[in-house]
Amino acid sequence: MKKYWLHRLLLIPLTLFGIVALNFALIQMTPGGPVEHVMMKLQQGSNSAEGATLRDSKQSAMTKQLRTELEKQFGFDKPALHRFGQMLKNYLTFDFGKSFYQDKTVIQLIKEKMPVSISLGVFSTLLIYLIAIPLGIKKATKADSSFDKVTTGLLTIGYAVPSFLLAILLVIFFAGGHYLGWFPLRGLISDNWEQLSFFGKITDYLWHITLPVLAISVGGIAGLCFLTKNSFLDELGKAYVVTAKAKGCSSKRILYGHVFRNAMLLVLSGFPAMLIGMLFTGSVLIEVIFSLDGLGLLGYEAIQNRDYPVVFGTLYLFSLLGLLLNVLSDFIYTLVDPRIHFGGRRS
Q1: What is the distance between the alpha carbons of residues 170 and 174, in angstroms, rounded to a whole number?
Q2: 188-211 per-position pLDDT tens digit
Q3: pTM for this structure?
């Protein structure tokens, strides 16, 4: 078993290398880098300037010398393999460099945006699991009942509605749109945050984060609930459950003493992917709609602006965290069901 875990941990740096190398190669083949992006912005500025003379003078200033200076500034005056090797060397010490367009390091930017994404991701994941798993278990035990049919209809609607559309509807109805103004429209804290008491700050924070978390969570609750229900229904139909009933075991003991351990394995398998999605990729549009400056928005803007240090730095960290969470997921398997042995069959 120890050999298996050691093997999994040794695969992490190799997988990270493959992810970074593949994306670096794709970036080299993609037309329009940061140099072209800056020159295009300058050209657009010159086209909107006053008078043809000023416009012509600005256009003439964009010479080969300017391009050479930009390439040197961004480090593109060196061969691609040299840049890739230097990047890997720096990444070993978590040195991701500085943003091309902001006078801040990538680590500083991530630290600034991290609280927003962690808040959305953690609260959304907790809400999804706290609601979906008990509801899925109840639906499995009451399969084909009126409760099961009604909740299935509601969950299907929730699963079908995109999170960004739900966010817009929540804003319209509950955040000062055309109806109710119960919740704030933007940000995570109020302007008078510093003047609030400790409990006032907690209340204010939860007040601001309610609608974004709800918008992100509804689809996840529906998906996980259906997965939980189907997992438990599959286990409830197996022979060992029939045997336990024949022996006189109570329904509660069968459900939580035998079925729960087996059925939860499939549910737990999706935890790392869900957490990563909630933290980094699933909330980009939500952050835009509610004006929340998090990691999702940071990555999206970095790709748009060809800010390669931010793109590769966030990619490296997200990939590393995802790989570690996958190993953690396998470890949780062994805690839930000690019969699982990843290292192969016991002799």
Answers
A1: 5
A2: 777 777 778 888 888 878 888 888
A3: 0.72
Q: How far is CA 310 from CA 58, 97, 165, 281, in A?
A: 30, 8, 29, 15
Nearest-5° angle of CA 69, CA 71, CA 73? 70
Distance between CA atoms of 303 and 310, rounded to whole angstroms?
8
What is the C-alpha R_g of the chain?
26
**Domains along the chain with CATH numbers:** 35-77 (no CATH), 106-336 (1.10.3720.10)
Contacts by 336-342, CB closer than 8 A, 24 or more apart: 336/261, 336/264, 336/265, 336/268, 337/261, 337/262, 337/265, 340/265, 341/1, 342/1, 342/4, 342/5
**Of residues 301 and 106, more confidently modeled:** 106
Residue type, 282: G
* CA atoms of 26 and 147, how far apart (whole Å): 50
The CA dihedral of 207, 282, 334, 138, to the nearest 10 degrees, is 60
